[in-house]
Write a structure and sequence with these properties.
Distance between the termini: 29 Å
Organism: Streptomyces glaucus
Radius of gyration: 19 Å
Signal peptide: 1-23
Pfam families: Lipoprotein_9
Order of helices and strands: EHHHEHEHEHEEEHEEEEHHEEHHE
Number of helices: 11
Structural class: alpha/beta
Protein name: Lipoprotein
Helix content: 25-40%
Strand content: 15-25%
Subcellular location: Membrane
């Protein structure tokens, strides 16, 4: 049985972040005791699945005691890493982390990039992007980086045009051409797959798409290109813990030939190894 613990977005929806941290545990034991297990916070799919593969197939031989904790939101893994409730996390990309650290005063740093989950546009009402009707409603993630990423995906595929120079803070107000007069519904990223019955299309993060039994490589109307993509997901720790021998060992295992093959075989192009 996998040694996991799940934290739901209900914690955040209730506005009780402190409760979420209590649920993770408290104190600095997980981060400071390098002789104990390395506890890693991760999104269930694909991050916890990849970590569980490492735990069950590679960790013991490498002398690594690994514990995986699952979280379904994009906030608690970083706050738990910052306060020492966990020793590391694996769920995010660099633009998201930069924005999170800036807004929350946290000190999380990347260790090694492992994979890319291409962001995609999905619909139950259209078979291709050109089929979206005038005035269609498109759900997008409401956090700063993922909303910008969603809009840049639509821009790259000619569905909208963003003004020149917009970066990772783009919002619908930065759209300069919208030939289909699309309307945008901003939702917490985890909610976007559940919105598909209520909107005409939704831009969905790869992990949430896979969790919802979507196959990005097959089902997306448009999908991010992996070429020069800045959104690779990495193992991260609180600054100062990069040299923890357990972290170094896990970084080596996550970028091993065995993990690359596991990613290729299990996800068939919906998750792409970045090493």
């Amino acid at each position: 049985m996998r040694n996991t613990a799940k934290i739901t977005t209900a914690v955040l929806a209730a506005g009780a972040l402190a409760f979420g941290l209590t649920a993770c545990g408290s104190g600095d034991d997980a981060a400071s005791d390098t002789s104990g297990p390395l506890i890693v916070a991760a999104s269930p799919v694909p991050h916890a699945e990849i970590l569980t593969y490492v735990k069950e197939n590679l960790a013991e031989k490498a002398g690594l005691d690994l514990e995986v904790k699952e979280f379904t939101d994009y906030v608690t893994p970083n706050t738990a890493t910052e306060d020492g409730s966990v020793g590391a996390n694996y769920f995010q990309n660099q633009p998201y982390l930069d924005d999170f650290n800036k807004k929350n005063g946290t000190h999380i740093v990347p260790v090694v990039t492992v994979h890319l989950e291409p962001l995609g546009l999905y619909s139950r009402k259209a078979e291709k992007a050109d089929d979206l009707k005038s005035g269609a409603t498109v759900a997008v993630p409401n956090d700063t980086v993922n909303e910008a990423r969603a809009l840049k995906l639509l821009d790259a595929n000619g569905i909208i045009t963003l003004k020149d120079g917009v970066g990772n803070e783009a919002t619908p107000s930065d759209i300069v051409k919208n030939p289909k007069n699309l309307k945008f519904k901003e939702l917490e990223a985890a909610q976007t797959p559940r919105s598909l019955d209520d909107v005409d299309a939704a831009v969905i993060n790869g992990n949430y798409a896979i969790e919802s039994d979507l196959e990005p490589a097959e089902d997306a109307l448009v999908l991010e290109s992996p070429k020069d993509n800045p959104y690779g997901n990495f193992l991260a720790v609180k600054e100062g813990n990069e040299d923890d021998p357990r972290v170094k060992k896990l970084a080596e295992l996550l970028t091993s030939a065995e993990v690359k093959k596991f990613i290729e075989d299990k996800y068939a192009g919906s998750v792409i190894a970045s090493f």
